[in-house]
Design brief:
Length: 535
């Protein structure tokens, strides 16, 4: 769940837990001896039986791996497979729910090796791309977030801890038979930092990550980049590591790594570093480009350009994509910045595959890396953070947080094959509490990082698959909403003094709905917080 939303709901729950008992006590005091308090136990009810999950959608697009005419995508807890033989018209082939987050994946023959965080290693048979199936699992005691393969060996970076120590290392598996991986080295020697990303080239394993040091009054982080000689692939030889200067002010650990010829590019929260790796035993820093609040998680090399994602952050920043010129052997410069959100990116040949949490897969022609051109897409709702309301056979999903759409429409004519029919963006609003009446939809909206809602918006759904926004009405800030019989009820809570009021709006249904002024304001209600309203 979005941490911002979590904090809002936690605050609301806390206030509710404090105020409601006081309200109940005050009511009991007023009623005196005429009040009867009944103690009730929760009845025993049977568990639901024969519940069948028809489909599953959702999750942040975390990783993408193109292999020839197929694109494998980690989307939340799903492995999603696309046919990209015609890049202008990608097609969904298959999908598998894994009950585990997909952090990284590699393809070995007809199997996908998936780094699944705390769930360890998952192995999926993708020989039938329309029906991928989980065939093996390896549940390590630690978190696995990155994997690299140099057949027949797979190298998995893991982080974790025991009762007495932090454990960071790399495990080596023989995946000659991917369905029965064999551990050949459970923990390589010479690695004393948190490994975040692995890459293999020129018979060497390159590892980027960092260290964190936390004391009672101190906090320091620094990046670490190290190579391991794979002359013996089952017992890599550690080579001298490169350590950045420690920082007490910002996060300096590397989180992503890419190799290109004699160079390696490592990214962290505020900068990109280029290393010369022609001699892996003597890695040197070649150049550095500082980019404030980068928060990047993906970078890819495209000819002499470097594509680096800028992650969505709070405060209305919807992220984007930096295009960096790396043609100079001594400097990195910014060529362009695209303001559209990019959450994951992979490059194959002249095509870049872009994953966006707001509307799915996009395909760019990058023949000219400085001017990427979209040539195809497959729209699928991958992530949202809001509420749902159904208007059969359509489902409306609200959002607006972390770059998700303000409103998305899903066609459920075929429940097992849902289709995303419309996406309405609204980066300056976050939406909740959707209600449907006749041929229009109503939702409550607020500014990013704001606790209170300050407007509600109307959408015409005469064509239910393509809602049209027709009106927006600003009002006194409110915290929750309910709707019935053409009337909208908004609850406003004052924390000091602790008073709540309910405002009632009359919405007249017509070709163009008319929003009247407040027709009634309930008396101020002491010591109450309606965390949610229901009519």
């Amino acid at each position: 769940m979005n941490p911002q939303l979590l904090s809002q709901r936690a605050l609301s729950t806390l206030i509710k837990s404090l105020l409601i008992p006081l309200f109940v006590c005050s009511m009991l005091w007023c009623a005196g001896s005429q009040t009867t308090v009944l103690a009730q136990t929760e009845p025993t009810v049977p568990l639901m039986q024969n519940m069948t999950k028809l489909w599953h959608w959702g999750g942040v697009i975390s990783t993408m791996t193109p292999v020839s005419d197929t694109l494998y995508v980690g989307m939340g807890q799903d492995l999603v497979i696309f046919d990209i033989a015609d890049p202008t018209s990608p097609k969904l082939l298959g999908q598998l729910s894994l009950d585990a987050w997909v952090y990284d994946l590699e393809i070995v023959g007809t199997h996908a090796l998936i780094a699944a965080g705390s769930k360890g290693l998952l192995i999926v048979d993708v020989s039938d791309k329309q029906a991928p199936r989980l065939v093996a699992e390896r549940h390590d005691p630690y978190t696995i977030n990155s994997i690299a393969v140099a057949a027949p060996y797979a190298y998995m970076a893991y982080q974790g801890s025991t009762d007495t120590a932090i454990v960071n290392s790399i495990e080596i598996l023989d995946v000659t038979d991917p369905e029965t991986p064999i551990v050949v080295n459970p923990q390589i020697t010479g690695l004393d930092f948190d490994p975040a990303d692995l890459q293999i080239a020129a018979n060497h394993l390159f590892v980027a990550g960092g260290k964190l040091e936390v004391g009672r009054y101190t906090y320091r982080t620094w990046g670490v980049f190290q190579a391991f000689d794979l002359a013996d692939p089952t017992a890599p030889t550690p080579l001298p590591a490169y350590l950045t200067e420690p920082s007490t002010e910002s996060e300096k650990r590397f989180n992503n790594l890419r190799l290109q010829g004699d160079y390696a590019y490592a990214v962290r929260s505020d900068s990109i570093l280029r290393f010369t790796i022609s001699t892996p035993a003597a890695i040197t820093l070649n150049s550095q480009l500082n980019l404030a609040t980068l928060n990047s998680s993906t970078l890819n090399v495209v000819s002499d350009q470097l594509y680096v994602t800028k992650q969505i952050s709070t405060g209305g920043d919807n992220g984007g994509l930096y295009i960096l010129d790396t043609s100079s052997p001594s400097t990195i410069t910014v060529s362009d910045f695209l303001t559209q959100p990019v959450d994951a990116l992979a490059v194959q040949g002249n095509y870049a595959f872009v994953g966006r949490n707001d509307d799915g897969l996009h395909v760019w022609d990058v023949t000219n890396p400085l001017a990427p051109r979209e040539i195809g897409n497959y729209r699928i709702l991958s992530a949202f953070d809001g509420d749902l309301v159904a208007h059969a056979p359509f489902l409306y999903v609200t959002g607006g947080i972390w770059g998700t759409p303000l409103l998305s429409t899903i066609d459920l004519h075929k429940p097992t094959e849902p289709t995303l029919t419309a996406v309405i963006t609204g980066s300056d609003y976050e939406a909740f509490y959707p209600f449907i009446d006749d041929n229009w939809l109503l939702l409550s909206a607020k500014r990013p990082a704001s606790y209170n809602f300050d407007n509600f918006q109307l959408f015409d759904i005469t064509n239910p698959g393509v809602p049209q926004r027709i009106a927006r009405h600003e009002t006194t800030p409110f915290t929750s909403a309910a709707y019935a019989d053409h009337q909208l009820y908004l609850e406003t809570l004052n924390h000091s003094p602790p008073l709540a009021q309910i405002s009632i709006f009359d919405l007249v249904t017509s070709t163009t709905p008319v929003i009247t002024e407040i027709i009634q304001t309930a008396p101020q209600l002491p010591l109450m917080n309606f965390n949610d309203l229901s009519v």
